[in-house]
Design brief:
The complex is a heterodimer. Chain A is an alpha+beta fold. Chain B folds into 2 domains: 2-105, no CATH class; 113-324, Orthogonal Bundle (MetI-like fold), CATH 1.10.3720.10. The chains are: A alpha+beta, B mainly alpha.
């Protein structure tokens, strides 16, 4: 019996020794070096050692950013979330990009030109562009990446964003299962994206140095047989879906190529050195980046708990962290932290949607009454604690197409009563109970309870709260049949063009408008005019009229524009803040950022 | 013993089938699917959704999806893709390209299995259990031996804290104390190769189990201490040390071992709280987020791993019983 006990105790001790032995074994290697592009893999990979990767010990300041969530996928043609895009924007660059004022400026392409009727867009790439490994980057690479985005086999979540490329929709929506190889190839060939050399001949391969022209055929409205202009496409093609990941590396890495830093050979300002899931992403400057070489490394961390990230920031373990509403009061009362808070407009508009298929919101006066009866200012101060700005229109401040003069449907209880009097119900008391459906997170419960109380108090309506699990909520709001009576949604800009705010969303043929049963012929005509007019100023006037009509329909109760809010250490200088920042401030122009190491304690 | 083991292991098969069946029905009865994303994002368009559903076989009837998951199915090229029976836990719909077994068991570039998500969780879980046992059992024993003294009350106080304080509160408290104030450790671990960064997650993860172990051990000891055979042992002149170690502790361990098995299974499959707070790269987060994301294969995979681990832990507990109490026979 004693021997059995001894065996048991010995096994326990042995197990603890083995396990503790596991750990020191791991203590020696330096994690950064393990995944360097060149380490141990040279014989298999086409890439060569990069100068930056060869000098990992160089004294370089590190910008430490807490990005929040680890990305689900880091593939230019399959990614869709900001934390994914944040990685891609460091490693790659598109034909064009945005500047600090959200203007579209040259990226890998030094210039672009539309033909007379804006049905063709010609990019000219910079001469001598190189990938971070020193290999040539020519127009053929962009041809590949754009086609890969459209390819139904890729099935990227943002594939539809390049639908205004002529031939794209036919190939992307092809019934792949019932078409032959030849038929599919014909559809692919029908997509008008062609890489040409300087003499106008099709490029032969990825090594051709004078392959600098990319011609893209456009169609502003693929639903009609006529070719329509699409004068906004130079901005669309700045998006991550066109980033030129290398075909041969994608093939070599297979389905999981994007998980490995060695296959992410890009043309952006940084080289990814380490991708350690949930622990960190480490980036070093790309010495071959055409615009210059950043003077610092970037380290992304992935702490999702904002309270911990805030503590770590105070402990000088991060240089940049998102600032959340829960910490705002502490930050504002702290003399140091309050100076480090950066709060500036974001790229989203949030609104209450009213189901126009069902009573009582099938009547415009009822919708108007609720729009008048909703206090946005109080929502921002009481619920968002100031992290947001009330709005009465769709396109947010800072974006082309913003309407600063919109004042209709502001909070006014008298007008609310007048509006409801015009409806068939006559007064708020006669309305049926209103069911307010929302994504049932703990935070949302407080918010919507507040709103229900406001509507009850201000309008005297009976509001039934209907919290739904977040994914189920998304599913409900994606289907016209299951659309709730009143619900809360938002839209964030993909790119700063009114076409993205209006036509993509509110055109009666768009997926969004169809979901909500929204159709307005007059608006459709104006948006189409905006989409197809070449003169930038004239375009804006059409979109402006369309937006005014949208407000007039009282289809939704515009509520707030979000704000981007971060804490940034004072030694991080030169950040260009834009509403379109993806995951961290400054990603629009990382070259402008410097780190003053003398200030770091 | 051999026959018993084989019989118990064979029982795993119906267990897996039942668990997978129930999980499959439950997850598919929740509205929404893997392509229903955050409401502020541009949703996957209908056509892409159709392509993705076809690619992953989500357009097929549910019974066929289940058979495909468990046994396998022919893919578009007419090639048979073996399912769970071959150890294939299915494709992730979120981390596209990766299979569930790759996500959970594949280490990052240039590292070994211990650096996979399961490897990390396993290490932390075992450390947490060792912490719980190393502190919990002696604490329980001492509290029982010194019943109704200050030592007992202090021990009970700590145990009550361990059971009643949620671990995210304790995590934040310990972070503020040890990292922000005393600066003994970093809040954000730069490298999980350093021993010190494991201390806080281990203590926080193991604290609840430690408290439960101590409480159970104390109760069990108090019961055993009043047994006739203890009186007999003392009356025949055995040294107090021998009475406590050989007669009391050993006999008190049975209920403790009963909870330690499932506790180990729970600890090694990761903790959502620890992982979100420390950026710990384990598998607990995968389980929780997969449910919200409707990443069906991940839900199935993590549930089945958990079920198998629980079954194996219970089997180990039964085997340990036979060591602790010779009256228990396994055959």
């Amino acid at each position: 019996m004693r021997s059995k006990l001894l065996v048991f105790v010995s096994v326990l001790i042995l197990a603890s020794m083995v396990l503790s032995a596991c750990q020191p074994a791991a203590a020696t290697p330096e994690t950064i070096v393990q995944t360097v592009v060149v380490e141990g893999e040279v014989r298999e990979v086409v890439v060569t050692a990069t100068p930056a990767a060869a000098q990992p010990e160089a004294k370089q300041p590190v910008l430490r950013v807490n990005l929040g969530s680890w990305p689900d996928i880091i593939d230019p043609q399959k990614s869709s979330f900001v934390n994914e895009i944040a990685h891609l924007k460091l490693i790659y660059e598109g034909l064009t990009k945005l500047d600090g004022q959200l203007n579209t400026v040259p990226g890998a392409a030094e210039k672009w030109e539309y033909n007379e009727d804006a049905t063709e867009l010609t990019f000219t790439l910079r001469k001598g562009l190189k990938y971070s490994d020193g290999t040539i980057l020519n127009a053929k690479r962009f041809e590949y990446s754009i086609l890969r985005n459209i390819d139904p086999a890729t099935a990227g979540e943002y594939a539809a964003i390049t639908d205004n490329i002529a031939g794209a929709v036919a190939w992307r929506e092809a019934d792949v299962a019932n078409l032959s190889e030849e038929e599919l190839q014909a559809l692919k060939d029908g997509v008008e994206v062609k890489a040409l050399d300087l003499n106008g001949n099709p490029c032969t391969d990825y090594e051709q140095e004078d392959c600098l022209i990319l011609k893209v055929g456009l169609d502003g409205d693929p639903a009609t047989p006529e070719r329509e202009p699409a004068p906004f496409m130079h901005t669309v093609l700045s998006l991550w879906v066109t980033y030129p990941a290398k075909e041969e590396l994608i093939a070599e890495g297979g389905d999981i190529w994007w998980t490995s830093s060695k296959y992410h050979i890009g043309n952006g300002p940084f080289i990814v050195k380490t991708l350690e899931p949930f622990v960190r992403g480490y980036f070093v400057p790309n010495p071959n980046y055409w615009a210059g070489v950043p003077t610092y490394d970037i380290e992304f961390s992935y702490i999702t708990d904002s309270a911990v990230a805030f503590e770590a920031y105070k402990n000088n373990e991060f240089d940049i962290v998102p600032l959340v509403a829960e910490d705002l009061a502490v930050v504002q009362q702290d003399p140091v932290l309050s100076k480090e808070a950066q709060i500036y407009p974001g790229s989203c508009t949030f609104a209450f949607y009213m189901n126009q298929d069902k009573p009582p919101f099938d009547e415009k006066p009822v919708r108007e009454a609720f729009a008048y009866g909703t206090n946005r200012e109080a929502w921002v101060t009481d619920i968002l604690q100031g992290l947001g700005s009330p709005t009465l229109t769709w396109i947010p401040k800072g974006f082309p197409g913003y309407d600063p003069n919109e004042t209709r449907y502001g909070f006014d209880l008298e007008k609310a009563k007048e509006a409801i009097a015009k409806s068939s119900y006559g007064s708020f008391e006669n309305l049926p109970p209103i069911k307010l459906t929302f994504s049932g997170t703990a935070r949302n419960r407080t918010r919507f309870e507040w709103l229900a109380a406001q509507w009850s108090q201000n309008l005297g309506v009976k509001v039934e709260l209907d919290p739904v699990e977040p994914t189920a909520y998304t599913a409900l709001t994606k289907n016209r049949e299951t659309l709730p009576q009143v619900f809360y949604l938002g839209w964030c800009a993909d790119y700063p063009d009114p076409q993205n705010w209006l036509s993509v969303y509110w055109m009666s043929t768009s997926e969004f408008a169809r979901r909500y049963g929204f159709a307005n012929a007059e608006m459709d005509a104006l948006m189409k005019k905006g989409d197809t007019t070449l003169d930038p100023q004239e375009r804006l006037t059409y979109y402006d009229q369309a937006q005014k009509l949208l407000v007039d329909t009282a289809a939704v109760i515009f509520m707030v524009n979000n704000v981007n809010s971060y804490l940034v250490k004072p030694w991080v200088k030169g950040i260009v803040f834009t509403p379109q920042d993806a995951g961290w401030p400054g990603d629009v122009d990382p070259l402008s950022i410097t780190i003053d190491t003398s200030m770091i304690p | 013993m051999g026959k018993y083991l084989i019989r118990r292991l064979l029982w795993l098969i119906p267990v897996i089938i039942v668990v997978s069946g129930i999980t499959f029905i439950l997850m598919h009865s929740a509205p929404g699917g893997p392509w229903d994303r955050d409401t502020t994002a541009r949703q996957v368009d209908q056509n892409t959704q159709r392509i993705l559903n076809e690619y992953y076989g989500l357009d097929k009837p549910l019974w066929r999806q289940y058979v495909a998951y468990v046994i396998g199915d022919f893919n578009k090229q007419g090639k048979f893709v073996c399912g769970l029976v071959c150890g294939n836990l299915g494709p992730s719909y979120r981390m596209r390209g990766l299979t569930i077994q790759q996500i959970l068991f594949m280490p990052p570039e240039g590292k070994n299995f211990l650096y996979s998500r399961f490897g990390y969780s396993m290490r932390l879980g075992v450390f947490a259990l060792l912490f719980a046992v190393a502190i919990g059992i002696p604490a329980g024993v001492i509290a029982a031996l010194k019943q109704n003294t200050i030592i007992d009350y202090v021990s009970l106080f700590i145990v009550t804290i361990g059971i009643s304080v949620p671990n995210f509160v304790m995590a934040l408290f310990l972070i503020i104390l040890f990292a922000s104030t005393l600066k003994w450790v970093n809040i954000v671990p730069r490298s999980w190769d350093e021993v010190s960064v494991w201390v806080l997650p281990t203590v926080i993860l193991g604290f609840g189990t430690m408290a439960r172990t101590a409480r159970l051990m104390r109760g069990s000891m108090l019961e055993v201490m009043r047994m006739d055979y203890i009186r007999t042992a003392r009356s025949k002149g055995l040294a107090e040390r021998v009475v406590v170690l050989r007669h009391m502790i050993k006999n008190s361990l049975i209920p403790v071992v009963t909870i330690l098995g499932p506790a180990l299974a729970a600890l090694v499959t990761g903790s959502f709280i620890i992982e979100t707070m420390f950026g710990f790269p384990g598998m607990g987060r995968a389980y929780v987020t997969a449910i919200g994301q409707r990443d069906y294969s991940m839900i199935m995979g993590t549930t089945l791993i958990y079920a198998v681990l629980i079954a194996l832990a219970n089997l180990s507990v039964d085997i340990v019983y036979s060591f602790l109490d010779p009256r228990i026979r396994l055959d």
